[in-house]
Write a structure and sequence with these properties.
By secondary structure, this protein is α+β, with helices and mostly antiparallel strands. It is built from four helices and two strands; from the N terminus they run H-H-H-E-E-H. Strands 1-2 form a two-stranded antiparallel sheet. About 10% of the residues have low confidence.
Length: about 80
């Protein structure tokens, strides 16, 4: 299984050319719902693809920070 590196999830040109990446989102939800992405030309980030996870994370802003390491890349729960 070749999961997304995250580029297609955030690149505006990909959306313009092909629309939303529904297949990539479905594969991530199925196989890696909290997926660490390392897209080329963008900083790494975590793709959270399940609604329940997004709701839970949004209730805990002190535990789930965008960049707790001062800019070395996003992290979930400080990892």
């Amino acid at each position: 299984m070749n999961l997304s590196d995250g580029f297609d999830l955030i690149d505006p040109a990909s959306y313009a050319a092909s629309g939303p990446p529904h297949d990539a989102w479905a594969a991530l939800r199925r196989h890696s719902p909290v997926h660490h992405c390392t897209p080329r030309d963008y900083p790494p980030y975590w793709a959270i693809t399940r609604h329940a996870d997004i709701c839970e994370i949004s209730k805990q802003p002190d535990r789930f920070l965008s960049q707790p390491d001062g800019g070395e890349g996003a992290a979930v729960n400080g990892t």
